[in-house]
Write a structure and sequence with these properties.
The protein is of the alpha/beta class. The chain has helices at about 1-10, 35-45, 60-65, 75-95, 105, 110-115, 125-140, 220, 230-240, 260-270, 285-290, 295-300, 315-320, 325-340, 355-370, 420-440, 440-455, 460-465, 490-495, and strands at about 20-25, 50-55, 70-75, 100, 120, 150, 190, 195-200, 205, 225, 245-250, 275-280, 300-310, 340-345, 400-405, 410-415, 480. The strands form four sheets. The protein has a seven-stranded mixed sheet with strand order 14-13-12-11-8-7-17. It has a six-stranded mixed sheet with strand order 2-1-3-4-5-6, sandwiched between helices. The protein is globular.
């Protein structure tokens, strides 16, 4: 009888406040949607989860010790590297706790994560499997056969369905739960004309239609994408505006995958909040195909667009299956600027195929087309990331560059055939991390990178010794104040809150 009573008590523990904790490690300087979304689903199922964002909050050791379930959101490489450290701490402090990794980088690294660190892994459209997992744990049921949930006994692919399998037509899609998260003032702000504004963060869709070979979305979604209901997106925006946001970032991998859906949302948003501005991410290819939408997007409040430019080398772009050329980049830039919208490029500055001449040409293009202030310096240091399952691994010509899989680093390391490029990468990475810490002027950082590139290339001409007027008062395109990027390695500063002594105390 005592054993039965104990079993029942054990099974009900997950309904207690604090028994379920969701942890965000890094989400590009935004209030983390990666824990707000699943907490909305979990609350709808009758549980009381709590959230912790270690990007802006201190580690709560007492809360971690009490938790029975810890879900760690890993939507990107930086978050995964930090999330592993979180899991290691939880294992020391709370050995009986169920640890679940979920998100884009959970799926592609499931086998390694389940080797003692994680109890479960969920990828793809993770909310519904997370609900099923927590309900099963609460009832004391086995998790080994749950759809969309990988465990130590079974690794499954990502969950690529929306809605509950049995009640999809009747179960509403909940609004992301943000009430327990740090206020928007703790996160990146919009910097425009010398002023800063609070920024909200939403997704109108997830996944992507395209198959860029280096993209981590491809091995998970394989050309599929899912729309978030318009009413959910608008209500989430509404709540963030009431919390002080005057600018919204759409975090979709490509906001123009579903242009009808996206335009309907921004038009409704603008009608309700005429002074609200926004930014989004879209492929160069889509900016050209949807060029007729660009003036309307500006009229609805768009300030800038982030686009995966990646390279100005047509050869590299072709190898990555980007679907655009160097000339297309300039055309898209002109289209946006004509409409009054800034382009903020993201880059993969270092690949096995990028020559030193290519790198210097990239710097030339940035100067020639006034993109220095529009490009976060970290972009000049990004090295091609090849995680397990990457579509790049199917390319025969990449094998000669690859070393073995670095499981703890969650990537295949590679060596450039020109040792100067690896030397340049090390130098640029050091410059960029120091500049981010010191909040150095982007133009000053650019000139330092130009100088080291010229030196390594043996160009000791005027370009390496030039002096540029970099007045802090010069006009700059709008930007978010977050200086890092999803594919970059975590900085020493990002790891610092997770340093512990031998007893596991922070």
């Amino acid at each position: 009888m005592g054993q039965v009573a104990e079993s029942i008590e054990e099974r009900s523990l997950l309904i207690h406040p604090g028994a379920i904790m969701f942890v965000s490690c890094y989400e590009l300087g935004h209030q983390p949607l990666g824990i707000a979304q699943p907490m909305g689903f979990i609350e709808q199922a009758g549980f009381v989860p709590v959230g912790l964002d270690i990007a802006v909050e201190n580690m709560d050791e007492s809360a971690l010790r009490l938790a029975r379930f810890v879900g760690i959101s890993v939507p990107m490489h930086t978050a995964l590297r930090l999330g592993v450290r979180i899991a290691e701490l939880v294992r020391v402090m709370n050995p009986a706790c169920h640890i679940c990794f979920y998100g884009l980088y959970a799926s592609i690294n499931a086998e390694y994560l389940l080797q003692g660190l994680a109890d479960s892994v969920v990828g793809g459209e993770y909310e519904v499997p997370l609900v099923s997992l927590i309900e099963a744990l609460d009832r004391g049921q086995t998790i080994s056969l749950l759809e969309g949930v990988s465990s130590r006994n079974r690794v499954v692919g990502p969950w690529l369905q929306r809605g509950y399998a049995s009640t999809a037509s009747t179960t509403p899609h909940p609004i992301p739960s943000r009430g327990g998260l740090p206020m928007l003032g703790h996160y990146a702000r919009l910097e425009q004309n010398g002023t800063e504004r609070l920024v909200g963060y939403v997704e109108a869709s997830r996944g992507c239609l395209h198959h860029c070979l280096h993209c981590p979305i491809v091995p998970v979604y394989d050309g599929r994408f899912f729309l978030v209901p318009e009413a959910v997106v608008l209500e989430d925006i509404r709540r963030q505006v009431h919390a002080g946001a005057t600018h919204i970032t759409f975090g979709d991998p490509d906001f123009l995958n579903g242009p009808g859906h996206s335009m309907s949302i921004v038009r409704a948003m603008h009608e309700e909040f005429p002074h609200l501005t926004f930014d989004f991410t879209a492929k160069i290819e889509h900016l050209l195909k949807r060029r007729t939408l660009i003036p309307d997007l500006r009229a609805q409040g768009c300030l800038f667009v982030i686009s995966a430019v990646e390279s100005f080398s047509d050869h590299v772009l072709e190898l990555l299956h980007k679907g655009h050329t160097g000339a297309d980049i300039i055309l898209a830039l002109d289209i946006l600027r004509e409409a009054g919208i800034a382009l903020r490029p993201s880059l993969v500055a270092f690949t096995p195929w990028t020559s030193l001449d290519d790198y210097e040409r990239m710097l030339d293009m940035m100067e020639a087309h006034d993109l220095i202030d529009a490009t976060d310096p970290v972009q000049l240091s990004i090295r091609l990331l090849i995680p397990p399952g990457s579509a790049l691994l199917a390319k025969s010509d990449i094998q000669r560059f690859l070393g073995p899989l670095d499981q703890a680093g969650f990537q295949y390391r590679w060596t450039h055939p020109d040792e100067r490029m690896d030397r340049l990468h090390q130098a640029v990475s050091a410059i960029v991390e120091a500049s981010a810490t010191e909040k150095e002027d982007a133009m000053v950082t650019f000139d330092r990178i130009r100088a080291i590139a010229d030196e390594i290339a043996g160009h000791h001409a005027e370009s390496s010794t030039r002096t540029r007027v970099s007045s802090p008062d010069r006009p700059k395109p709008p930007r978010l104040t977050e200086s890092w990027f999803c594919c970059a390695e975590p900085t020493t500063q990002q790891f610092r809150p997770l340093q512990t002594n031998e007893h596991g105390k922070t």
